[in-house]
Amino acid sequence: MEQTSIFKLSTSIKEFRVGYSTDIGGGEENQDDYLIYENGEHNISVFGIFDGHNKENGKIAAISAKDKLIEFINENLLLLKSNPVETIRTAYIRAHENIKQNLKDAYIKEGYTVIETPDGYLIKRKSIYIPWSCIHGGSTCTIIIIVDNIMYISNVGDSSALLYSVDPELDENDIQYITDCAYPTKFINDNIVSSDLKKSDTIKLTSDHSPENIREFYRIRDHYPNPREPLKPYLQFIYDKYGYPKCYCPNLFNIDNCGIPSLTNEGKYHKTVRGDFATYIITPLSSQFTEQLAFTRTLGDFQLQKYGVSHLPEIKSIDLDKLFKKVTSPLCIVIASDGVWDNWLYEDVTKFITESNRVEKVFTDKNGCQEITDEFMKLNQEKARTNFGNTADNATSIIVYISNKI
To answer: How many CB atoms lie within 10 A of CB 118?
Structure first.
C-alpha cells in the first residue's frame, strides 16, 4: 500500500485530521487517484476520490480530472465562496473536458489520427487502411468541499462517501439536497423536514448512480428515448450474467404500458458483500462501437454521454455548525472507491471508525489518523483477497475526522 504524509487542517472553529491510503489490488496499474487540498485564508478544504476505468485510459482519466478540478477551484476560490453550487458544477465540466483533451493528445503523441465525432466522442486510427476505433475511458469523481462551515457533497459514479458519528443522532434531515445538475427540472427535493426519520450513527452522503436507480432510468430515457420503443431508453440496463454477451443478459427493468419501470430482480451474482447485484448499462446493438459501464454518471466515457450518461453531479450540503449542536463527539467522513466499499458491510465500517480508542487516538497522536487509515486499508486488503483473489480492484480511501473546537 502507498500512503501520503500526515495532514492536519483547520478552519476557524473546526479541526480536521486526515489520512489517506491506496492499494493496487490485483491489477497491474493503480488507476485510482485522490485529492486533499486546503486554503486557510479562505477557510476552504477539499477532499476527493477519482477511480479511473478502462485498461488503457483509466489512469489518464483520473489524473486529468483531478488536476483540472483542483486547478479550477484554486483559481476560483472567491467564486466558490459566493456561488458554490455553480462553481462545483463548472468544475465538473472542466474536468470532463480535460479528460477529452488529454486523451486526444496522448493518442496523437503515439502517432494516431484522432477525430471528434459530431456526437462528441473520440475515434482513432493509425492508418487509412485500418478501421476507426473508439477511445474509451473515464473516471468516477466524489468531492467533499468545506467552505467555512458548510460541507458540499458532489459525485458522479460509485466512489461513495459516508458520514459517521459516535452519537447516534444523524438522520437524512441533516443533509440538504441542493440540485441535480443533470436533471434540474425533475424530481425536485423540497427538503421537507420529517420527524419520523430513524436516528443513526451513519448516513450516506453521496448520490446513487447505480443502473438499478429508477430515477436515473427516467433521466436517461428522457435524454435519449428509443426511437422504436419510446417508453424505453436507447441504452440497455442489464444484470450481468457470467459467460453471456452483455446484450443477451437479463433486463433490469420491466416497463408497463404507461412506461413505468419496475425491477425484475433477476440478478445473477453479487458484486459486493452487501448483496448488490452486478449491473451494467450498455450501448444498443445498433451502435457502431460497443461500450458498457457499471454506473450511470462518469467523467469521460464520451460515447455513452451521447445516450444519456452524464458527467454532471448531484450536489448536497450539510451545515456543520447546526450538526454540531446535536452531536457532541467528533464526526468522521470516509470517502473511498468501490475497491473499498465492495468489501465492507456499512455497520462494520461504523464499528471500526467510531471505536472510542481510535477516536481518541486521532486527536491525541499527530500520526493517529494516518495510522487508523493504514489499519483500515490493511483490513480491506485482506477482505479483498478473500472476496476477489487476484481480481481485487484498486482501492483508495480518505478518512477525515472533524472536531468542533468551540
So the answer is: 6
Q: How many helices (H) and strands (E) does the chain have?
A: 10, 23
Distance CA 237, CA 209 (A): 13
Per-residue pLDDT at 226: 87
Count the Cβ atoms, other than its own, within 10 Å of residue 133: 14
The C-alpha cell at 379 is: 483490513
Instruction: Give the DSSP letter string of 254-271.
Output: EE-TTS-EEE-----SBS
3-state secondary structure of 97: helix
Q: What is the three-class DSSP state of 158? A: coil
Predicted pLDDT at 185: 66
Question: 3-class SS at 332?
Answer: strand
- Grid cell at residue 401: 475526522
Q: Measure the CA–CA gap between 172 and 175, rounded to whole angstroms.
A: 6
Inter-residue contact 17 to 368 (CB < 8 Å): yes
Class of domain 2-201+320-404: alpha beta
Domain boundaries, the chain: 2-201+320-404, 214-294
Residues in the chain predicted with pLDDT less than 70, given as ranges, are: 1-13, 185-196, 405-406
pLDDT score, position 10: 47
The reported pLDDT for the residue numbered 240 is 96
d(CA 183, CA 236): 20
Q: Which three cell numbers stand for residue 15?
A: 479541526
Place of cell 479483498: 384
pLDDT for the residue 144: 98
C-alpha 178, offset from chain centre: 17
pTM given for the model: 0.93
